[in-house]
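We modelled the chain as a single entity of 508 amino acids. Its sequence is:
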Amino acid sequence: MLPQAPVLRRVVLATAVALLASHVPDAAAQSKRDRAAAEALAERMAAAEARYRESLVKAANADPAAIEEGNAALEDMEDVMLACEKQRGCQLASMLSGWKRLLKAQADDAAGVGEDDFGPDGLDEDGMPTGDVPEAASAAALLSEDGQRFVRMVQFNPAVQEGIRRWLTDMRVSLITSHENYQYMRHLMAPAFEKRGLPEALLFGIMAKESNGRVHAGSRAGAVGPLQFMPATGRRFGLGPDGTGFDTRYDPAQSADAAAAYLSERFAEFGNEVEKWLAAYNGGEGRAKRIHDASGGRQFWDADVYSQFPAETRDYVPMVIAAAWLYLHPREYGLSFPKIDVRPTNFVLARPASIYELTVCMGDSGSRNGYMRQLRNLNPRFEADQVIPAGAVLQGTTRMAALYKRWCAQGRRADLAHQLMGSRTDSALVRTGPIEVLPASGPVTVATGVPTRTSAPRQHRVARGDTLASISRRYGCDSKRLAQANGLKAPAYAIRTGQQLRLEGCSR
């Protein structure tokens, strides 16, 4: 809560009401310069209101800068209202409307507002977004034309309602985790859907069902990334190995752009039938097209059409729509998505560190589970245990950058995190007394001293969709050592389907 707000409320609101009573704009007397000045004041008021709303989010996250920034925004609004009274053509009534919205937001944040205070579309009594869907401006757009367009494009039926029930019960934690992960990546992913006129809620629904917002998710079938592209489909839309050993299917921005392009193709085939887009996304566009053509274009929910899709697809379609629906209408179902400060920024490593090490030293201030998932999602090129050199630029948020500077660049916690990363179980073993020298028949077990049978390193047969990075993660290998053991050349580290890899230096 911002404690100085009530004082400013009394002073500024009283002043504004008095000014409004005496202020009658003379539209006929406005010059071009007057109109420009009035518009500039309106933009300044809107910017100050946005800064104040950002300070509320900071206050909820116990950010010490919240009070100072919130009060500065309020003072700027006061100055704008006073200037508006003197500016010909400035609509003081519209300024008061913004002030009223701001005060209500401050009061709601301080006291907590019950779900009955809001309508089913997530808007308050003044038509403002509640803040439970991403950011105020974007949420307003979603809940108006973009959100309603999605509502008109899908059928809200018992199958979707069952999906909503599942998301709100057994899968509630997965839904909330997906939303939290998405907020950190939203600035990277949403523009692709916005550019093609696709509902952002649909992007969230697909991501929630495919990966829960985990960039490094992978399936046994070979699909990987936040939106789970198979290798062949990924290549069609520009995804895959980029020559440096990184598979761009893991990249949030590039995968979102590919998904938007894919869905645009399905729009050209199926029109506004989102259900068939999703059926194609999950079960393959070839199958979806054949069923569509054979049925004479009947809808997905037609029993004869629906029954031709596999069980996985019949489950997938309503679950994605249900997640998208909840993204747009959380309060209607008593759902509160976490309010988090996700303003993006970059920070430079002052010393070598891995994502594991940064996770330890950053702690969990502002994030209940710490920052490992966020760091991995925003920097997908790096493995969690990979030592990243000093001078490397990492993507993060303003809070993460501040925590890095406070705790990770230097100091005791940074040293402690570094020490933890170098700790291994074998370092804890202490041997005392004489040690019997056994015949050179191979290694011995620590517990018994009994020689163990020496065997050749395990091997892995490369399957479709495998990459050196994914194999390294699966078996707990150092990717560079694995590449060296198998004669793979940098930077591509190319492997082929059916190739046998020696799993040297792998822990699992």
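As a brief sanity check on the tokenised model: DSSP finds 20 helices and four strands in the chain. The CA atoms of residues 191 and 249 lie 17 Å apart.
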